Predict the structure.
Amino acid sequence: MSCARPHGLPIVEATTPPVLTLIGPVTREQVAGPADDVRRLLEAGGAGIVVCDCAGIGPPGLAAVELLARLQLAARRAGGRIRLRAPDPALRALLDLVGVPVEVEGEVEEGEPALRVEVEVESGETAV
């Protein structure tokens, strides 16, 4: 029995993660609602990730941190995760300070080498 290889590239279906746009300023009363939106987006799409656009979230504060922590928790409970798009540097610092782990679009994931980085293993050898 023989098998012929198909010509060309294999067909791969790309999935684009859904985007949840967060608009501020965030108050404590608004924190609970978007968690349901994250769960619905994860159930509807097959990507396992919801991108949260934080460009319009307003000044970072504890309400914004609570919102993102709840979104992350809701995503984890639904078997997915969130990824932030365009977060303010002060918001990132605040999330790091309180210990809320979040991914940010465009950053290299932990444990993966950055693109186009050449590493020299031992002196005298060529870089890989």
